[in-house]
Amino acid sequence: MRIFKLSKAFFLNDVREFSGFFWPFIFPLILFFILVSVFSGTSSNDSGIIFRLGIVKEEDFAGFGKILEQVIEKIQPEPFQITMFEDLDEAQKNLQLKKIDLVLRIPKGLNISMARVMLFSGSPAKIELYTLANSYESQIASKILQSILQQVDLEMSKQAILRSGGEYKVVDFIVKPIEGQRHSNQFHYPTYVFPAILLMSIMSGALFSLPLGLIYNREQAVNKRLYTTPTNSFDYLLSLGMSLFTSMVLSCVLIYVMGLAVYKISTLCLSIEFILKLLYSIAVCFSLGIVVASFCRKFTTALVITQIAYQILMFLGGFYFPVLNFNMPQLIKIVVRILPTTYLVENLRYSLGLHLYSFSQMEFWVIPGLWIIGSIVAFSLNFKRVMGYE
After folding, report:
1. Which residues, including other chains, have CB under 8 Å from residue 384's CB and lie 6 or more apart?
2. What pLDDT shows up at residue 49?
């Protein structure tokens, strides 16, 4: 019972201050939002933004319809890469699968409608645009195409007034959003970065709160005062570990809620396999924290070491970019292959159907496991000094 009471006291003491509440619970959500906002944007190349436009042409251009044909020729290859489709259903399926960003339908009778507008100021021609619902890229592509065609309207308006003296009526754009579909091979950046955010949150608690808390309490003689009570060193360590584990679980729950509710990440993250791998990752991260506490005698030294280790484990571990797929120096690649976080984040992504590296199942479990064993050995040899029990 006293272990639970002490664990509760540690937890409340940590979250009572703003920094103790902000870093484990708020910052991961902010980082999640920033990464998805930045890296889930429109695709681009060196020359500018490119959108993929599908065109369904139900009749060939003729007469005044040639004007529209000339416009379509001029908007490719930038800002639109154009794909022609035989029928509307095929184009819509490609739009739902995000193979294209927008569908332009050229309906039957468009040539006649444009002729009537030009010669007799007749009813406006109608063009259908199909966009993907809740897709920023699709909405932007639609607005750009409408803007281009509206510029053509202005020129046609001058011609209509000169020919008939009547009032020109612009083209009616009928925009029809349709719902997208998901398929197993589709890359979804929020799902890709989701394991990284979880591990970042877990690792920050294990690398900062655990070793820094142990060393600070030892330097301030908090441990010695605790040991004058019925609490021994094992009770103290277990209570601190339970407090940090509670904080990690709550942080993961918040990230789960944001990922599932806001970004619609893969529901495979709820599988038993994924959760077991996440618990294994927590154990590995705890081992990284205790190994720092084992070798650092002073608080200031531990603070520097944890900051450096945190950045290396996070960025070289491939949390946000597949580092091993880049052309990097061989020495860096060796370091990446040694780091446990490389295998932890890839193992979690593997459960979500994402395969960036060709690691074996043995590598996923054995290499992080070796870090656990090595950390436990180092911590055991320095247990009394780390816990201030000597």
Report:
1. 233, 390
2. 58
Q: Cα–Cα distance between 363 and 41 in angstroms, integer?
A: 34
String of DSSP letters for 161-212: HHHH-S---PPEEEEEEE-----TT---HHHHHHHHHHHHHHHHIIIIIHHH
**Would you list the DSSP string of 206-255?**
IIIIHHHHHHHHHHTTHHHHHHTTT--HHHHHHHHHHHHHHHHHHHHHHH
Instruction: Yes or no: say if 68 and 61 are a contact pair by the CB < 8 Å rule.
Output: yes
Q: Is 314:341 a contact under the CB 8 Å cutoff?
A: yes
The pLDDT tens digits of the residues spanning 227-266 come to: 888 888 999 999 999 999 999 999 999 999 999 999 889 8
**Cα(194)–Cα(72) distance, integer angstroms:** 40
Q: Which two tokens stand for residue 89?
A: 């259903």
Q: Where are the alpha helices (DSSP H) in the chain?
A: 2-16, 18-21, 27-39, 66-74, 88-96, 110-120, 136-164, 189-204, 210-219, 222-227, 233-261, 272-295, 299-311, 330-338, 340-351, 361-381, 383-386
Any idea where the domains of the chain sit in the sequence?
2-40+186-386, 44-178
User: Is 3.40.1710.10 the CATH number for 44-178?
Assistant: yes
Burial 65-77 (b: 16+ CB within 10 A, else e): beebeeebeebee
Q: Look at residue 83 and give its three-state secondary structure.
A: strand
SS3 318: coil
Question: What confidence tens digit (pLDDT) does each residue in 38-63 have?
Answer: 776 544 444 345 788 888 887 777 76
Contacts (Cβ under 8 Å, ≥6 apart) of 331: none
Strand partners of residue 105: 56, 128
Q: Tell me: cis bond preceding 28? Omega within 30 of 0 counts.
A: no
Q: How far is CA 252 from CA 196, 197, 199, 248, 268, in A?
A: 11, 9, 9, 6, 15
At residue 183 the predicted structure's pLDDT band, cuts being 50, 70 and 90, is very low
For 216, residues 6+ apart whose C-beta sits below 8 A from its C-beta are: 222, 299
What is each CA distance from 373 to 317, 341, 367, 369, 379, in whole angstroms?
20, 15, 10, 6, 10
Structure tokens at 254: 């918040």
What is the reported pTM?
Answer: 0.67
Contact 158, 121 (CB under 8 A): no
